[in-house]
Amino acid sequence: MSLPAARKTLAGSLDLVAQEVTDLVAIGDQLQGLISRLVVAAAASDPSAMIEAQAADLLSQRLSGLAAFVRALADAAPADISADIDSALRVLTLTEQARRLSNPASPPAVDAGEALTFWD
Q1: Which of 31, 40, 88, 112 has the fewest Cβ atoms within 10 angstroms?
Q2: pTM score > 0.85 for this model?
């Protein structure tokens, strides 16, 4: 993955992380709907499925709390402090995630118009 050198304000970087986590909350909320439908079908044969399915709700709640925490850190960070985030970006395994956290204004690297499925 080749990304341009990324030197950003600490507040800006933290704000991008908060946005990324907020996006994950939305995905978690979508998954809860799917999990609920699947659990309704499975609950008759496995009552513990409902309890285990509540983990998806807990995941969304924890991610939402994390997003609020990181956003509060971004708001509290001094505006004149910057950080070289290249080493942090290198540990990310998803190119699009690294792009969003380094330069969200740049266009996506792939055509996001068509979703891939498990069967593609």
Answers
A1: 112
A2: no
